[in-house]
Amino acid sequence: MLSIPRNCFWDDEDILSLHPYTHRSCPRTYMMPALDRFLTLDEMVSEPSTMIKNNKFQADLDLRNFDPNGIHVKLDGNILQVDAKQEKKGDGHYEFREFVRKITIPEEVAEDQLKCKLDKNGRLRIEGPLKKQLEIEEKGRNIPIEMVNQKK
Residue limits of the SHSP domain (predicted)? Predict the structure, then answer.
């Protein structure tokens, strides 16, 4: 058995040189970028799409894998928290999903007028108008979710 120290590989070409048939058995793997080019955690985790345009705040979240009854949106100060949980039990298996996302609401958004809409594709849209005067309110409240485009 060939003993190779763990730190001997500098790049993909070093691995390929170990055995002449390596490239033929795994050609696609070695066409990928080197390991040092992996995405960082920040690049892998998708941020919610948020923006202020035409005097309106809007944030979109993809919650298609969750039951609408398990989705909750809460505002605490200027932090909007979206929680979603789903649990499935079956014969010989158990499935649990959980989603938590916190979004900082800009000061110019009228927090008391935020609305949530969940479409049939699981896209949650949180929107609200901008304040006419900048006011900072310190109160928490739950935000109801309105179901839109649901087939009956």
Answer: 39-146
145: which residues sit within 8 A by CB, 6+ positions away? 68, 71, 73, 116, 117, 118, 124
Query: Which stretches in the chain have pLDDT values below 70?
Result: 1-50, 132-140, 152
CB contact at 8 A, 109 and 122 = no
d(CA 107, CA 87): 36
55: left (phi over 0), alpha (psi -120 to 50) or beta: left
Q: Hey, what domains does the chain have and what are their CATH numbers? A: 11-41 (no CATH), 46-147 (2.60.40.790)
Question: Could you give the CA distance from residue 12 to residue 25 in angstroms, rounded to a whole number?
Answer: 14
**53: phi > 0 → left, psi -120 to 50 → alpha, else beta; which?**
beta
Angle at 73 between CA 87 and CA 53, to 5 degrees: 130
| 90 three-state secondary structure | strand
Based on its alpha-carbon atoms, the radius of gyration of the chain, rounded to whole angstroms, reads 24
For residue 57, give the nearest of 7, 121, 124, 106 by alpha carbon: 106
